Amino acid sequence: MLVFLDESYEVATEGGYRHAYAGFGIDELNYRRLMAAVHQAKLRLFRQAGSMTPDEIHAARATQIITEEAPEDAELKATKLLTAKQAKWHASYGNAPGLLMAETLLDALSAGGGIVFGVLSAPSNLRELQDRGGHLPIQFCRLLERVESWMREQHDDRAAVIVPDTVHEGIDRQLSKRIADYLFRSSDGKRMRHLVPNPFWVDSHSTTGSQVADLVAHILMNSMRPAGQRKAIDHLWRKVVSMEYRSTDGRTRGIRRVVQKTTGGS
């Protein structure tokens, strides 16, 4: 099983940050199908600027997303697909290309049996998630707990490969070590026997799963905003939440908010 993860964050008007670390789990065969669906969606909704005139670009933006690259090579970025302007247009007319793309991707993820996980928090500084003096941040611990619960209940004979979007080589290396230390040395981590200890960091530009995880994370981060500041993408949030993991006993859910405690076991 593959678990793609990415983060989305912004400075909060009330101070600190809004941060969502989120993504989805999917089996390998359905991931191939998801990749094919994303490829077709890019061909349908993306258009390369090439030699288009400014007037042609302006007219095309009503129905397509203009890119500098060939459509199949363009990276999906939630912050560009789900702008406030696109969201308002879609709420009024239902045809904003960025939101149509997001709807298509989430529908494809759902059709492939994707299971959503996410941890929402409000760190005062992003370094709390990157430099914790040898400890794995609590956000990662809670996310791993949820993936482990899913694997134990539904895929007990398999292991999940964690596939995060790369941050920075130094940070990636530190987090890889801390994840392994947590899984092998902490009492909670030792019980997580369905997780491959080494995460496989990938470049989102070339990895479809990371681009879809970015979309999931951004939608969840938007839900953390005060009601009056949220983008008008509630229908996308409902699609994401419909794929949320729920344990059979109802005690564990895939999406969780964490308080301002910042370290897990070591």
Please supply descriptive tags for the structure shown above.
alpha/beta; about 45% helix; disordered C terminus
Short description:
This protein is of the alpha/beta class and 266 residues long.
Overview of the molecule:
44% of the residues lie in helices and 15% in strands. It is an alpha/beta fold and 266 residues long. The protein has one domain (2-257). β1 (2-11) and β2 form a beta hairpin. α1 packs antiparallel against α5. The longest helix has 18 residues, at 28-45. The chain is globular, with a radius of gyration of 19 Å.
Oligomer class: single chain
Average pLDDT works out at: 89
Share of β-strand residues: 15-25%
Unreliable residue stretches: 262-266
Rounded to an integer in angstroms, the radius of gyration calculated over CA atoms is 19 Å
Helix content range of the residues, please?
40-55%
Structural class computed from helices and strand pairing:
alpha/beta
Strands side by side in the biggest sheet? 6-1-2-5-7
Series of H and E elements: EEHEHEHHHEHEHHHHE
Biggest sheet character: 5 strands, mixed
Number of strands: 7
**Spatial separation of the terminal alpha carbons:** 26 Å
**What is the number of helical segments per DSSP (H or I, 4+ residues)?**
10
Globally, the shape reads globular
- The tally of domains stands at 1
